[in-house]
Amino acid sequence: MKVMQRGIMKVAPGKMAEAMALSEKLMALSSRYGMSTTGARMYRPFTGGGDAIHTVIFEIEWDSLTEMAAFFEKMMADPEYQSQMSQWDTLLENHQVELYVVLS
Question: How far apart are CA 62 and CA 64, in angstroms?
């Protein structure tokens, strides 16, 4: 069962450039552990008011929950990943993750 992971990040005002640079580093690290960066997409809302200008949305497709879980087990054990996660704390106001499955 294919799974789509969708993340919504509210970036702190004035921190977007730092967040995008850190995101590039995270994508490079992620690709070493098997995440397909060609299937990953990032968006910024075109309209929406409020904090839309500070919002980044990413989507990643996985072939299964098992594949996604195996990826995160490897990533979370990596010291470089752990270091990057603490850096996000200073850049984001909020981060939520949603998982979707395709309805047949």
Answer: 5
Per residue in 69-92, pLDDT (tens digit) is: 999 999 999 999 998 888 999 999
- Among 65, 48, 68, 69, which residue's Cα sits nearest to residue 57? 48
pLDDT of residue 45: 78
Structure-block tokens of residue 18: 């730092």
pLDDT-above-90 percentage for the chain: 59
> Tokens 């500070």 appear where?
54
Task: Give 60's strand partners.
Answer: 5
Coil, helix or strand at residue 31: helix
Q: List CB contacts of 31: < 8 A, sequence separation 6 or more.
A: 37
Whether residue 77 contacts residue 32, with contact meaning beta carbons closer than 8 Å, is answered with no
For residue 98, the 8-state DSSP code is E
